[in-house]
Amino acid sequence: MTDCIFCKIIKGDIPSFKIYEDDKVFAFLDIAEDYYGHTLVVSKQHCTNILDCDSQTLNAVMHAVQKISRHYVEDCGFQGVNVINNSGECSGQSVMHFHVHILPRKSDDGVDLWPAREKLGVDLKALHEALRMK
Ligand code: AMP
Ligand code: ZN
């Protein structure tokens, strides 16, 4: 896609700090510098997000996510990762080209990505009925 920033990064038209590449996937450091090692794993095939990508693309991206995560833990001194995907504007997706965020973690890094929240008090039985796949 000509006006897509991630397509331009994959083509090399916009510079990036590449972490990994194979025939289906490109991974590079997120420009935000908000988390140490924040990495984006991007499909080379342009699709919008997890809702429209084909299963081959999804498999290739997730396989690369695992490879890179293992590298961060086995070779780079991290102890774990958070893996995040935003799909849809309502979820916070700002770049409309499928990508998965890896946030490498250390036990003492002070990051809290899932702060405790009050219970919603929903009726789980009704919720189950509304959401289960029939
Ligand atoms: P999302 O909000 O899930 O769509 O994530 C998009 C991410 O792309 C954000 O974390 C941005 O910081 C990142 N981003 C946008 N432009 C660039 C760029 N040129 N190089 C690296 N990361 C970028
Ligand atoms: Zn694109």
Structure description:
This protein is of the alpha+beta class. It is 27% helix and 19% strand. A five-stranded antiparallel β-sheet has the order 1-2-3-5-4, with helices on one face. A hairpin with a 3-residue loop joins strand 1 (18-21) and strand 2 (25-29). The structure holds adenosine monophosphate and zinc ion. Adenosine monophosphate (AMP) binds next to loops.
Low-confidence stretches: none
CATH topology: HIT family, subunit A
Indicate how many domains the architecture comprises.
1
Please identify which CATH superfamily we are dealing with: HIT-like
- Radius of gyration over all CA atoms, rounded: 17 Å
Quote the distance from N terminus to C terminus.
37 Å
Q: Please indicate the percent range of residues in DSSP E strands (runs of 2 or more).
A: 15-25%
Query: What is the tally of beta strands?
Result: 5
Strand order across the largest sheet: 1-2-3-5-4
Bound molecules: adenosine monophosphate, zinc ion
SSE diagram, text form:
Elements: H1 5-11, E1 18-21, E2 25-29, E3 39-43, H2 55-75, E4 80-84, E5 99-105, H3 124-131
Antiparallel strand pairs: 1-2, 2-3, 3-5, 4-5
The structure holds adenosine monophosphate and zinc ion.
Brief characterization of the structure:
The chain is of the alpha+beta class and 134 residues long. Helices cover 27% and strands 19% of the residues.
Features:
binds zinc ion, alpha+beta, 27% helix, binds adenosine monophosphate, globular, HIT family, subunit A, 134 residues, 5-stranded antiparallel β-sheet
